[in-house]
């Protein structure tokens, strides 16, 4: 089955709005095994829209429209597509009651324009909108179909999931089951590693990369959900075999969600001391509902004096090794845990740029610390082609990864340990500092 | 002049990548006075691409392509478009040297495929890529033009600004001058207020809304930059007359940038005590280069004990009024300033949800404090239709606005003052608490 996605709205052509609907529908259609051949954005112009629909309906089996279902005079998608598919529209009393009720509840009155929204297909079918006033529509002629959904992303997604997706699954006579693996690691290398597994018809697997991690979404089409789940599990195993514990979780919103859940499971609490990330790590942790169970205190220690006063870094250590150094990261992490009475402390000190680097510590150099029990683990990050936002994002991601490994009871990879007892020993700090210089 | 934007890449049709290029180019073309009539995304398929180009070149004056200029076999945009515009490609020695040099510097060797990238138009012109290996191309036939740029957003934007935009301005015989106003306030009401000013041919004005603020971009086309600037200034004045000091700055990345600059100008420093925003405010402030001049200490006081220990909130005050209350916000702000030795302290305590609200403090209730000198100003925010991320984003935005007003020496609108001396007085705190209950 082939499809095209059509976004209708002059505001899109002016660049006033970023079109996120097309990407969402592309992924969803791909999972249904429907090939998207073209995506188009058209303005609210009846002539151009009609020309477009007449061309497009002969190129593929399904046209998926978003937008142009509003009450204003230039919202013409429904009328135009109906005509192209040999259908007409009729006034629907129950939709009209819904619309007037909706307006009444929000203390407004309808205008004559609003009646347009209550028009529904005669031969085709209306699609109920449970989250707004504009119903969707389905048209069909000689086996070629068109579906119309609202342009507001939340309404579109809801209508897609509640009505359109099930309708298409029924036509395809299948169910879908998905699992999303979350994987730590650099984008291009990871993509290369798993490339062979991404070329499969069923289950499909697609990779979406973000800063410091990727998402691998596996989707199986099957006659039953149980069978789909089994197919997903078997296919997921291939990724686990290849990637090991770089796969840190399934079906979560991000590393912070896994970290908070793991801390809860183990009955641990965590504290942060952030310099160049400036609150970004605490912000990510507290974005997770229920994080207050495991996170109570965060320190943004931007100045050297703040590092000393809030988390007990020795001014002499800063003077000797530089504020961006392994010994300072180690003392910050230990200090954060102690000041908060937390089991785990994590820290970041680095040069986010655009200025402030030197030969030993160019912009993009970050030291991370992660303390638990009697040991603190230090890691160095060198972000190439650094810009301020990227350095901060990578540093926060790396810090959350260290925290997760400690919460899991593992020794984090690529780190150097220092004993808590040795944190004030010149010899031990010298040694720790040496390890990272020249890396 | 009319145009279409064409994004080439199967990965876009699969939804693997969000297409941000189309929005960027839509805005830029609109500013040049070029009407974008359609945007399309096409896969890497030579037949379908050729069909498309042959249709599209007769519909408008200019086709703007991004993507499909890579070295692999399925990158066919240049060959295909050349043929449609009656042009051919020729191997360009200087481009090839650039490519081999680029590979050598990154320690790699070129493959035969890479030679494709050194092919340039015979009749048209190549467009130098200063930020990558793939040159762009310009084709022209009987007054109809096509321009090809890389798909990587950073390379595309650079080529657009360095070469394509100047070329189009020259053809249009004009220069462009732009100014972007930053405006605080609710999105829909603001858009309604300025709607008449958005319908102008030259200068154009477009509004882009974000959480708690909008951006109004004014662009004038003129024969000289000086004339364009004058036109922009005159048109901007209309917005200032309408919106007053809701316009907080021009040509900045966000409220945090204006705040940091204002603090620097006034020689002030600032500190934060965050509960429900969990570091988001500190993160936004420290995202500004040079913020270390004005920001040294940030406290994420998620637990009640943290509010007491780090910024001196009295446990009795929490017990009496609730942790989400005006008295607690006031003590947090005063305590943040004092603990950091900063002139200004800001604070947030609220119910971000999804759970945790009660009748007096439903999810979405946030108290903000802003202290300077002998006074702390408290404000209450009630976010309707709250979700956790939205509540946090609105609270951070409101806190930054309070801080900016204090830095400017103004009394922030919609706040209740409390004297520093009265922060431990039961009577004064009772009174402050009363003002906000039932709002």
Automatic annotation (TrEMBL), chains A, B:
This protein's name: Putative competence-damage inducible protein
Family: Belongs to the CinA family.
